Amino acid sequence: xxxxxxxxxxxxxxxxxxxxxxTFCFVKIANAAAPTVSSVTLNGGNAIILNEGTTxxxxxxxxxxxxxxxxxxxxIIGKIYRSGVTSTFACATDTDNCYEDTSCATSSCxxxxxxxxxxxxxxxxxxxxxxxxxxxxxxxxxxxVIDSQNASDTATSTGVELNTLISLDxxxxxxxxxxxxxxxxxxxxxxxxxxxxxxxxDVKISGTAMSCGVRGSIPVGNQEYATASFVxxxxxxxxxxxxxxxxxxxxxxxxxxxxxxxxxxxxSIPTRVEGTCSxxxxxxxxxxx
Length: 289
What we know:
Layout: E1 36-42, E2 56-65, E3 73-82, E4 98-101, E5 105-110, E6 115-124, E7 139-147, E8 152-156, E9 168-170, E10 189-195, E11 201-207, E12 210-212, E13 217-218, E14 223-226, E15 236-237, E16 243-249, E17 260-267, E18 277-278, E19 281-287
Antiparallel strand pairs: 1-2, 2-6, 3-4, 3-7, 5-6, 7-8, 9-10, 10-17, 11-16, 11-19, 12-13, 12-18, 14-15, 14-17
């Protein structure tokens, strides 16, 4: 019978177990709320009436709210624009029809309501495009509120009209210099007319007799006018009645390029007058034909 050899080898199996560990990450997500904007109003809901020859401060107002606290509101941007302009609220700034305020001011901020009132302000030029004669057009305000996490909200006002501004400015005096009795003036004597509104214009012209300091007067019809340099006798006689005069002054588009027209004047002096003579010539604005 076979007997195991006492020198037999014992086989030991070593089991190696490798444990792979796992790491769990926990991230707390903040409950951040986007801001809201409400009650957007342009010019208090009233028609915009511009100032002739200069700017008019126009405001868009409303309320910005952030439930994370009003201090979370980082910026407010405002635009006002004519409806129908290219890209509407995304319009490129243009003093004719699109204005922007990138740092609207806040006030009356409340920790109770987490809101602030705001005002976006715009210096609107006198030649901004009118809409009161076009029922399909008006001016709108668009507001964007942004918080510290770049969340945002936008809103647009109801439209208001921007009124037509028909106005002009004219140089203060027409100086004929020294002219002898019985003679006529020579050289160029001008009055410059400037369109200070937002629509093309013409004028009506009238005048009065000139009273002389020592004696006599110069009849109103002894003054003549024209749109270019001329000699006396070749112009139009001035009248006491307002007479249409087509100067054809177009709508301004840039404060650096005023729309002006020089008017030219001559006078004939009667024989029996003496002294310094003065009177009033009136330029009355009217819409261009």
